[in-house]
Amino acid sequence: MSGMHPTAVVAPEARVAPDAVIGPYCVVGPQVELGPGVVLRSHVVVDGRTTLGAGVTVFPFASLGTVTQDLKHDGKVGRVEIGAGTTLREYVTVNQPTFEDGLTRIGERCHIMAYSHVAHDCRLGDGVILANAATLAGHVVIEDEAIVGGLVGIHQFVRVGRQSFTGGCSKIVQDLPPFFLADGNPLAVRGINAVGLNRRGHDAAARGRLKEAYKILYLRGLNTSDAVGEIERSLGADAPEIAELLAFVRAAKRGITPGPA
Question: pLDDT (tens digit, 9 = 90+) per residue, 9-63?
Fold first, then answer.
């Protein structure tokens, strides 16, 4: 394999695409699979039952597929999957699931910035961005194209909705609905993610419906159940973004992130 630096340590059992590049001082374990065009720049550790999809790029000192920090871990090796086109910057850590039948997954075209931590059993959708030192506890779900700011901490079992945006240095302890922007400590939903929605092709009518839904959910003093009913009555559930928002709120097991005080 011409793309492997002589100082790299790659287990003979590892499945490595012929055009993958493995830089100086990388370590690749025996159950690892590296897809076409994968680049490990240098000093990268990939271990466990870990699969890197086509075109994944990993920067120095990242550690992928290593044993979970969960003390319930029974010593068996679970799966880690990282989707095609994803970039993982310096010192990123991605852990195995706690149990053998679990899965830690990062989707396609994600951008995981330096020092971010993706703990056991987390599931990240496609196009997710974690800014520097974002920290995910176990079983966190982040849906497609959500953006999580730097130094954000996310509590176990929290769900972060699609195309939402969270400002830096926040703490997420309840589910954050899709399409909304949240900031502050304590965290509060401040409005719709207007810039992100515009960039992703939501037209003015869709943004207007979401803005009205935000007002009903957060600014009228209604409890969540009553607000959901009012959104459905006044805006209907035919528009896809409203239907998605309502389904997310109804499914929230930890409650949803509150609005401004």
Answer: 999 999 999 999 999 999 999 999 999 999 999 999 999 999 999 999 999 999 9
Is residue 102 among the annotated active site residues? no
The SS3 call for residue 196 is helix
Q: Which domain holds residue 16?
A: 9-139
C-alpha 135, offset from chain centre? 10
Given pLDDT bands bounded at 50, 70 and 90, which one contains residue 261? Answer: confident
Active site residue 139: no
- Alpha helices for the chain (secondary structure H): 194-199, 204-218, 224-235, 240-251
Is the pLDDT at 1 greater than 60? The verdict is no
Question: Which member of 48, 125, 138, 161 is catalytic?
Answer: 138
Distance between CA atoms of 257 and 246, rounded to whole angstroms?
14
The edge-to-edge listing of strands for the beta sheet with 165-166 is 21-22, 39-40, 57-58, 87-88, 111-112, 129-130, 147-148, 165-166, 180-183, 188-192
Go through the chain and tell me how many residues it has: 261
Query: Which pTM value belongs to this model?
Result: 0.97
Question: Which among 73, 117, 120, 139 is annotated as catalytic?
Answer: 120
pLDDT in tens, 50-105: 999 999 999 999 999 999 999 999 999 999 999 999 999 999 999 999 999 999 99
Of the three residues 122, 139, 156, the one that is the final residue of a domain is 139
Look at the chain and report how many structural domains it folds into. Answer: 2
- Are 59 and 131 within one domain? yes
Structural tokens at position 147: 């953006």
236 is an active site residue: no
In terms of domains, do 20 and 129 share one? yes
